[in-house]
Design a protein that fits this description.
This protein has helices spanning 48-56, 126-136, 169-179, 192-204, 209-222, 227-245, 247-250, 261-272, 283-302; strands spanning 10-15, 20-26, 29-36, 65-71, 85-86, 106-110, 114-116, 121-123, 142-146, 151-157, 160-167, 255-259, 278-282. With 303 residues, it is α/β, with parallel strands linked by helices. A hairpin with a 4-residue loop joins strand 1 and strand 2 (20-26).
């Protein structure tokens, strides 16, 4: 039987739209991990507590344990809406939300996302990764790029997120590669030279993308364009167009990348071709660091 000392000091949770990950924490060190496919998009509001307990029950003792959660769990359709914090602001604030729970062993705190009024933009979850990166590099001044389905570019200065922009590049690639006529021309694999040329083309003439997209299908029919080159070309054109629109964020800036390793590598390669050196960070590690920073702040509020 477990002793009280073997249970979690607190529990960190990253709750997205399709997945949820939880960690039992001793101070800032994870001692156990659990995950499931019960993301925000699959749950009714009254089902979040049971979904959480299914993951973390073995880590709970008699005393009440704090649970610090970030991500879509705080969306309007989530467990309880955590109001956005307006930029400029620190990435993690004290405006957390505490949903009502039936199980007295848990005290749940949901972190707010960030919002920008003009131009309108929002983020949930990425702000915690930014906070984790700043916990490691408190003097960072520059841009943090978070590649993903909806890539974020955030201007950071003096410990605050000053502004940010979201690009649906990843979702556009998924839609075009799975639901458009291009799905017949793309395969797994990669061609780095083709990718870099396409990035350059996308940067120089982003307005030509719609026409260029169909040329992938035409060339595969007429000239047997191989699937790996077609995939790299589509990715490069999309990323090039994103870099063209985000030029003010990366040109002459210190840039850090946080995200999926493969995606971050593509961004680093594309930016490197423009003469921009990048730093990278592990997404899970900075998420946990950001959640720990929030936990420490919550403890200070209580004490």
């Amino acid at each position: 039987m477990n002793s009280e000392a073997s249970y979690a000091d607190w529990i960190a949770v990253d709750w997205g739209t399709s997945r949820v990950r939880a960690w039992a924490m001793k101070n800032d060190v994870p001692i156990a991990e659990a995950h499931s496919d019960q993301g925000m998009g699959t749950l009714a509001k009254d089902a979040f507590e049971s979904a959480l307990l299914a993951l973390i029950d073995p880590w709970l003792g008699v005393r009440q344990t704090k649970v610090v959660a970030c991500g879509m769990v705080g969306a309007r359709q989530g467990w309880a809406e955590a109001a956005y914090s307006d930029v400029p602001c620190t990435p993690v604030s004290e405006n957390h939300t505490r949903p009502p729970v039936k199980d007295t062993r848990i005290d749940v705190h949901i972190l707010p996302g960030l919002c920008q009024r003009k131009p309108a933009d929002v983020m949930r979850g990425e702000e915690t990764q930014i906070a984790g990166y700043l916990a490691k590099y408190p003097d960072f001044d520059g841009v943090i790029c978070l590649p993903g389905t909806h890539t974020k570019w955030a201007q950071v200065s003096a410990g605050e997120v000053v502004s940010f922009r979201t690009f649906m590049t990843g979702e556009m690639f998924a839609l075009l590669s799975k639901s458009s006529v291009l799905r017949h021309s793309l395969t797994k694999g990669w061609d780095e030279e083709t990718f870099l040329q396409a990035v350059s083309d996308g940067l120089s003439r982003p307005e030509a993308m719609a026409s260029r997209f169909f040329s992938i299908r035409a060339e595969s029919l007429l000239s047997a364009l191989d699937g790996a080159s077609a995939t790299a070309r589509l990715s490069g054109w999309l990323l090039g167009a994103e870099l063209a629109a985000a030029r003010a964020y990366w040109l002459g800036q210190r840039v850090a990348l946080i995200g999926n390793a493969t995606l971050s590598k593509h961004y680093a390669t594309a930016l490197g071709a423009q003469g921009v050196a990048t730093e990278t960070a592990d997404a899970t590690k900075v998420t946990l660091a950001g959640l720990f920073a929030a936990y420490e702040h919550i403890k200070e509020q209580v004490s």
